[in-house]
Amino acid sequence: MTTTQGFALVKNLIAKLFTILFLGLAVAILYSLFSNVVRGIVSGEDIMEMFLSSINTGIIALAVFELALVINKEHSGQEIKNDEDAIAGLRRTVPRFIGTVCVALSLEGLIMVIKYSQLELAGNLIYPVAIISSTALLLTALGLFIFLTKAHEKDA
Fold it and tell me: Which residues fall within 8 angstroms of residue 47, CB to CB, at 6 or more apart?
């Protein structure tokens, strides 16, 4: 076995371990989500508050699951042969992951707006505004990334 083959084997093993770790975390988060919903229904908690919290937890589970898929797809198996393959791989996976993160951040900001307006804490609205502004900045950066790598795709 050559050094390159040994490195590829170790890289594949570590990628599989991280994939299993993140899949396990996603399952644990989903279990927590369902147990909290059942516990909330049984104890008679406010349904709206419980479901808003559940949406947030579900989006986090989705982001962790998406991260596991990205790690498995991009870092296990065959070595990337050249830069074009690496850029093409990034163009496939980064928008999906960033899109999931943006959905999570947007929902979190909107949930905070609803929560603060119900509790009449208008002074705290700076936090959801910062989260939503950060989401817009993240989407702008993603658009710039796609625009800049599109020129590379045409050259290939």
Answer: 40, 41
- Taking the C-alpha atoms of residue 52 and residue 100, their distance in angstroms, rounded to an integer, is 17
Query: Are 16 and 76 contacting, i.e. CB atoms less than 8 angstroms apart?
Result: yes
- Are 68 and 22 spatial neighbours (Cβ–Cβ below 8 Å)? yes
Burial level of 71, CB count in 10 A (0-12/13-18/19+)? Answer: buried
78 has a pLDDT exceeding 60: no
CA distance to 10, 53, 101, 120, per residue, from 33 (Å): 34, 9, 18, 27
d(CA 138, CA 156) in angstroms, rounded, equals 27
Structure tokens at 113: 């707006």
Contacts of 129 (CB under 8 A, 6+ apart): 109
Confidence class for position 119, pLDDT limits 50, 70, 90: confident
* Mean local confidence (pLDDT), 10-27: 91
